[in-house]
Design goal:
mainly alpha
């Protein structure tokens, strides 16, 4: 994951795709810092994929009467939907944990490099 570090404000922010390399506050040039995702980020992705598959199977069964998703009809529909949205909500928790850990790591890296960053 990439972050912007502003040496003037001593802050890090997640890098946006189509934004310039300037600080949101002082508009000074920022430095890009790469940080590896934590295990929380990979768990978040796995939960999102599982929820996406569940949604696709639900729609395949109820909208298109697909044979490969016929087992969805044997499961209690309310429970299925609760599990589906539960996975998404738990994914949000892991997303928050991941962004918190990676942002702290980016700030640590930036402060270690502070003498070398203009």
């Amino acid at each position: 994951m990439q972050f912007y570090y502003c040496p003037k404000d001593d802050t890090v922010r997640p890098k946006r795709r189509f934004a310039d390399n300037r600080c949101d506050i002082c508009r000074q040039e920022c430095v890009t810092i790469d940080v590896k995702r934590s295990v929380h980020g990979y768990i978040m992705y796995a939960l999102d994929i599982a929820a996406g598959i569940m949604i696709a199977l639900y729609l395949a069964h109820h909208q298109f009467n697909a044979d490969f998703a016929s087992f969805v009809g044997t499961i209690d529909e309310t429970l299925y939907i609760v599990v589906m949205f539960g996975l998404i909500l738990i994914s949000f928790v892991f997303s928050g944990l991941d962004i918190g850990r990676t942002q702290a790591e980016a700030l640590r890296i930036a402060r270690e490099r502070k003498g070398r960053i203009q």
